[in-house]
Specification:
The complex is a heterodimer of chains A (292) and B (379). In chain A, 35% of the residues lie in helices and 21% in strands. Chain A is of the alpha/beta class and 292 residues long. Chain A has 2 domains: 110 residues, NAD(P)-binding Rossmann-like Domain (Rossmann fold), CATH 3.40.50; 149 residues, Rossmann fold, CATH 3.40.50. Chain B is an alpha+beta fold and 379 residues long. Chain B folds into 3 domains: 72 residues, ATP-grasp fold, A domain (Dna Ligase, domain 1), CATH 3.30.1490; 127 residues, ATP-grasp fold, B domain (D-amino Acid Aminotransferase, Chain A, domain 1); 147 residues, Succinyl-CoA synthetase domains (Rossmann fold, 3-Layer(aba) Sandwich). Helices cover 38% and strands 25% of the residues of chain B. In chain B, α2 runs antiparallel to α3 and α11 runs parallel beside α12. Chains A and B meet through α4 and α5 of A and α9 of B.
Chain lengths: 292, 379
């Protein structure tokens, strides 16, 4: 078992006819993802990588039975695409698009919640379940199936850590990049809950960064409700206050969102926090050893 | 994107929010003329993108037009937290009876714009929040409906604003909420909102920050862009489209992806070095972007060596290597460069770097250690 994706997951790509959409459609197919079609308004009837293109999500669902979507629509239309997917009944929405106006996200989030959908992102690399495929842009080749559930706010840092785990012979159950924006569809706690309930996952690795208080919330949840061991890493220890470090959400404002505060909260919840990413595999091995 | 107080007040006025009359002056003579036109005593306020202007001496009173000219000449050209004052706002002085705080921010927790109102106006709201949080009323805007008048009245009443302010104040608050949403703001603040002795309610100071991601549909505000940062390198980076933050060390850092670059900074610090900057070349960067980034970081006089850390996904190792090799001829002689490549095209890239006689690190840790050692060897 893994979380989010299973053999019934049927994925459409919105913005499939764009450069990024096409490129990653091919990569997702190569990873074995069950892609069933795509959506670009005005391009209905075309094909991309042998997949049918529709004008609307509603049409795509009617024709393909899609229940998940990956969004590559440019920023001006991405929030609208999220709302279209949720309204049409898509239950798992992964939004890769970066630079969506934040006010658009405050509206899109409401529609997602109203329809009981799960949104990963925006401004995220997506998710991957080794052996089943991926929804998004995470390089599939670095994974191997295994016991580690992985949650991260960043993209390339995720690839780095997953590679280290795989090199150390530690596989992964499911990996989710939750996104670097201030308003995102789902956070650490959402997936900690799911990993806690997932039989394949034995240990969870969470990679946080400066900004906001999602890591502190995660620490609270781990302390009160988790039995499975969690290993954490926080990046941005050297980041100055008041500066946006690339991600729109990676900013220390006043005293909130510091790496030190997050590390302290996690340690107080009994979570070992890796000093550098190279310490993560060892901490995971120790946690696995304690279980068995 | 930050905008000036006078621009924020201009936006508020468009939404029907009363602000004191005033104009911007670029010279003491202009300040005097504006004061004469306004009649009566004026306030001359430095227009720079930082808080604490009053404490820094950037806000002064002028009882007569001549005095306005004199204080304007003191303020213009002044340095406030690294920013030079190039213009002042000259406004009529108000006879203040009470001061309140009214603001809206994007709140990550409630995933909505959240209104904050307090009777404790005129002060730094973060300070109020830290010392007496009970004095701030917080209220999220329902984005399905926007802020409705009854909600605005309720918020002001909860904050303990006097009865005579509720009607006028709630009109201002609903207008502020509308301005916030329509202008793609991520911060909008009236601090203080004042009750004058003759019963007027108006914005005495205003701050609006526009969401950079909304600028494509806020063309007029986008045209107001000026140098925001006191650091000229950060300003130039923004113009060149680079995601760059200046730090205070001597190890230049370039990587792809914000999280990876942040992790690289931490790794360099852990290896005994001090990062000079954060630079994220983003996903799928071509050789030209890599070259531009390297030349940019090298142009910082504090930088003694550069670590390039790339995990190739959409970004290809050959492109990165080509960019590094192209940039080499333009970098200061003897400046150490260490490149660490992984992922897509890493092997091809490494071969190219080896042919060009460049150093590379096996992984991020080795890369960080090598660049720190190379810089130490220079001293």
């Amino acid at each position: 078992m893994s979380i989010l994706m299973d053999e019934h997951t049927r994925v459409i790509v919105t913005g499939i006819t764009g450069r990024e959409g096409r490129y990653h459609t091919r990569n997702m197919l190569n990873a074995g993802t069950r892609l069933v079609g795509g959506v670009t308004p005005g391009k209905g009837g075309q094909e991309v990588e042998g997949l049918p293109v529709f004008d609307t999500v509603e049409q795509a669902i009617a024709a393909t039975g899609a229940n998940a979507a990956c969004i590559f629509v440019p920023p001006a239309g991405a929030a609208d695409s999220i709302m279209e997917c949720a309204s049409a009944g898509i239950k798992l929405i992964v939004c890769i698009t970066e630079n969506i106006p934040v006010i658009d996200m405050t509206r899109a989030i409401l529609v997602v919640r109203e329809h009981g959908a799960t949104l990963i992102g925006p401004n995220c690399p997506g998710m991957c379940t080794p052996g089943l495929g991926k929804i998004g842009i995470i390089p599939y080749g670095i994974f191997q199936p295994g016991p580690v559930g992985f949650i991260s706010r960043s993209g390339t840092a995720t690839y780095e850590v997953v590679s280290l785990l795989t090199e150390a012979g530690i596989g992964q159950s499911t990996c989710i990049g939750i996104g670097g924006d201030p308003i995102i569809g789902s956070t650490f706690v959402d997936y900690l809950k799911q990993f806690e309930a997932d039989s394949q996952t034995k240990v969870v690795v969470m990679c946080g960064e400066i900004g906001g208080s999602d890591e502190e919330d995660a620490a609270e949840f781990i302390k009160s409700s988790m039995k499975k061991p969690v290993v954490a890493f926080i990046s941005g220890r050297t980041a100055p206050a008041g500066k946006r470090m690339g991600h729109a959400g990676a900013i220390i404002s006043g005293n909130t969102g510091t790496a030190q505060g997050k590390v302290a909260a996690l340690q107080a919840a009994g979570v070992p926090v890796a000093d550098t990413i190279f310490d993560i595999p060892t901490l995971v091995q120790e946690a696995l050893a304690r279980i068995s | 994107m930050k905008i000036h107080e006078y621009q924020a007040k201009d936006i508020l006025a468009r939404y029907g929010i009363p602000v004191q009359p005033g104009k911007v002056a670029y010279t003491p003579e202009e300040a005097e003329a504006i004061a004469r036109e306004l009649g009566g005593p004026v306030v001359v306020k430095a227009q720079v993108y930082v808080g604490g202007r009053g404490k820094a001496g950037g806000v002064k009173f002028g009882r007569t037009p001549e005095e306005a000219r004199a204080v304007a000449s003191q303020i213009l050209g002044m340095d406030i937290k690294g920013l030079k004052v190039e213009k002042v706002l000259v406004t009529s002085m108000v006879d203040i009876a009470e001061e309140y705080y009214m603001g809206i921010i994007i709140d990550r927790k409630s995933q909505a714009p959240v209104i904050m109102v307090s009777r404790a106006g005129g002060m730094d709201i973060e300070e109020v929040a830290a010392t007496t949080p009970e004095k701030i009323i917080k209220y999220p805007i329902d984005m399905r409906t926007g802020l409705r008048p009854f909600e605005a009245r309720t918020i002001l009443a909860r904050a303990g604003l006097p009865s005579q302010v509720i009607a006028k104040g709630s009109t201002i608050l609903t207008a502020l909420a509308r301005a916030f949403i329509e202008c793609d703001a991520n911060t909008a603040e009236i601090n203080p909102l004042v009750l004058t002795r003759d019963g007027q309610v108006q914005a005495a100071d205003a701050k609006i920050v526009i969401d950079d991601n909304g600028l494509y549909r806020q063309q007029e505000y986008a045209s107001w862009a000026e140098q925001e940062e006191s650091n000229p390198l950060e300003f130039r980076a923004k113009q060149e489209g680079l995601t760059y933050v200046k730090l205070d060390g001597d190890v230049g850092i370039i990587g792809n992806g914000a999280g990876l670059v942040m992790t690289t900074l931490d790794m360099v610090a852990r290896s005994g070095g001090r990062p000079a900057n954060f630079l994220d070349i983003g996903g799928g960067a071509k050789a030209e972007v890599m070259e531009k980034a390297l030349r940019f970081v090298a142009s910082d006089p504090d930088v003694k060596g550069i670590l390039v850390n790339i995990f190739g996904g959409i970004t290809r190792g050959e492109e990165v290597a080509r960019g590094v090799i192209q940039a080499q001829a333009h970098l200061p002689e003897g400046m150490p460069i260490v490149v660490r490549l992984s992922g897509t095209g890493a092997e091809e890239g490494k071969a190219m770097l080896k042919d060009a006689g460049l150093e590379w690190g096996r992984d991020m840790r080795e890369g960080a250690q090598k660049i720190v050692a190379a810089i130490q060897a220079l001293n």
